[in-house]
Each structure stands twice: as structure tokens, then as C-alpha cells.
Amino acid sequence: MKLTAQLTQWMALVFAVLCGAYGVYGMIASGALAEGAVRDDARGFAGFWLFLAGVGVVLAIVSWLMARGKLGTTDA
Predict the structure, then answer these.
(1) Is residue 67 scored above 60 in pLDDT?
(2) Long-range contact pairs involving 45-53 (C-beta distance under 8 Å, separation at least 24)
(3) What is the pTM of this model?
């Protein structure tokens, strides 16, 4: 199965938005937790989702550069 660079760009962008939204929601909701250890664990889990959102953004940027022909050489 082949995916075009433009399709990959949009898929990575959707992935980044979904992961980012879940991570931000987790950070906001973790403030309501009473226990310190549980709150820290919840923030760590939300931080992981924010990390995944960052990975999605990087993939979207790389795919965008590939679609524009600005990444790598085309001489084969």
C-alpha cells in the first residue's frame, strides 16, 4: 500500500490534533485529583500524549517538505 506525501501530511496532522487535545484534556482534568501520586501519574500519561502530538507535528512537517520536493534529492 502506497501513501502519498500529501495524504501522510494530513493524516499526521489529524493524529497530532487528536493526541494534543487528549493530552491537554488530561492536564486540565488532572488538577481535580486529590492524591499527589495519582495526579503525578495522570500528568505523566497526559505528557506522553503531548509527546505523541509533537511526533505527529514533526511527521506532518516532514511530509509537507517531501510533498514540496524540498527534502532530499530527486537524483536517482
Answers:
(1) yes
(2) 46/22, 47/23, 48/23, 49/19, 49/20, 49/22, 49/23, 50/19, 50/20, 50/23, 50/24, 52/15, 52/19, 52/23, 53/16, 53/17, 53/19, 53/20, 53/23
(3) 0.82
